[in-house]
Structures are given as structure tokens and as C-alpha cells.
């Protein structure tokens, strides 16, 4: 955990990012010990006639944080939304290829999409608590799914989720006050607590800290690192420092000449930031495009 190094690329450019913490820890782990959560095979995705993603092939490891980085418009959010079929909501969109979750095709006609989204939760860029109390924000999902029926069980679950989201101490005396009265950073941690309340296996995060101040951002990153042994986390971020600090693996998207998003490189975050294999990765992380 204490490993700390600054990357120098083959060109001699110094990457202005310190690769520490979990990225350094992941660099030590052997790829053979990893279990795959998602297998993405020959995935293409279109919004009508526009091809937004082309020929994606990647395995996302279980119980690790995978960061998705890349220039604006390269398809990062589109890809993230495919992982729990939020993409179904866009009329006129279609895909070819497969995404397997624990070996099961998520696009199978037999698959229950509500059950999929329970397994694969999502936290959005802008905190979006329900206009209800803090307690009700957490209790809503479990109640919908019919779990934790007794009040004592629900109380315990609410406390557990808020503790996991590192929010309990700040809100334990105001559980029945409106969630909208919380700060932006607290609201985002509440949204993470809400996502956890239905016991997902995966949490997708779309720039979860981009609307937050630096202290709240660090709290969200610490929280992700805390949660990663239990959940598979996939996060889209524009923040290179954040990807380097708070992810184990990094996936780099770029845009082809026709503007379709492609994965140019995927690997351990430590390797991507210190020894990128592709010129476009190097250009992107050193700020020369995107
Ligand atoms: N609902 C939609 N209908 C049509 N085109 C869309 C839709 N959503 C996204 N696109 C297009 O798909 C491409 C990829 O968009 P996407 O939002 O996935 O990129 P991104 O890498 O997440 O971008 P950013 O970093 O700016 O958030 C872009 O060209 C975008 O204009």
C-alpha cells in the first residue's frame, strides 16, 4: 500500500500523477487469481444510424474498481449504461455482441431486467436522492423488493447502509429529516447507501464526484476503496488523478475516425499510468488530447 511512484513514459514525459494505494497494490496481484464479473464480447452499440461503440472485447474483474477514462464523446457513459441495460431506455438504440454477467447473457429475452438492476446498481453524476427522508431513501428499495419487513430489521439495515457509506455519524440524529437538506457530498454518499441497500453485486458510478468539492471527492474515493472488497465497482471519470488514486484497473476509450468509441487499452491502473502500451493512452493521460 505504501508503494508510491511517479510515471515516466518512454518519451520521457513525466506523468503528473502519483500512482499509489490500491493501484500499487493491484499491480502486485496476479491476473490468474482474478474472477471475471463481466465478459464483454464483440460488443457494438448504435443510437439509430450512429455507431457509438465498436467491437468492444474486455473482461471486468470481480471485486475490484475499474475506471473508465477517455475523451468526451468516446462512449464511456454509453458503455456503463449497457452494463445494467439502462440503455434499453433510449429509443432507437440497438446492439450486437454479448455482455455476460457471471457467465449469463444480460440481453437474453428470459432475463428479468428488474433483477439485473438489483444486482447491478448505479450512482449518477448528479446526486439524486428521492424527495423523502434520509431513512426513506434507504428503506425504499428493500421495501419494494419485500425484504426487511419488520421495523427493527429495516432500522438495522438503514444504519448498516449509512455506516457502509460513511454517513451514519453525520446523519444519525436526523434520519427523519429531508434528504434534500443534506450537502451535495452527503447526498451522493446517501445515493451510494441507497444503492447498497438492495445488496447489489456491482455498483456503476458515472462521474460520481464531478459535482462535488475536493473534500467530498476524497470521501467518495475513500468510500469506493472501502467497498471494493465486497462489490465490483465500475466508475467513469474525467479525473486522471482519481483514476490513478482510486482504481485497480483502467479501461481507456478513444474515438475512431467515424466517432465510434473503442477500447484502446485495458490493464492494471499502475501499468496504464506508468507504462502505457498505446500511443493514444499516453497522449490522453498526459493531456495532449481529449
Ligand atoms: N441518447 C443519445 N442519442 C444519440 N446519440 C447519443 C445519445 N447519447 C449519447 N450519444 C452520442 O454517443 C456518443 C458517446 O456518448 P457518451 O455520452 O457515451 O460519451 P462519453 O465518453 O461518456 O462522453 P462525456 O465524457 O462527454 O460524458 C456521443 O457522440 C454522443 O453524442
From TrEMBL:
Organism ancestry: Bacteria, Bacillati, Chloroflexota, Chloroflexia, Candidatus Chloroheliales
A single GO BP: phosphate ion transmembrane transport
Domain (ABC transporter) ranges: 38-285
Gene: pstB
ATP-binding as UniProt keyword: yes
Organism: Candidatus Chlorohelix allophototropha
Keyword terms of this UniProt record: ATP-binding, Nucleotide-binding, Transport
Highest taxon in the source lineage: Bacteria
Record's protein name: Phosphate ABC transporter ATP-binding protein
Record's GO cellular component terms: membrane
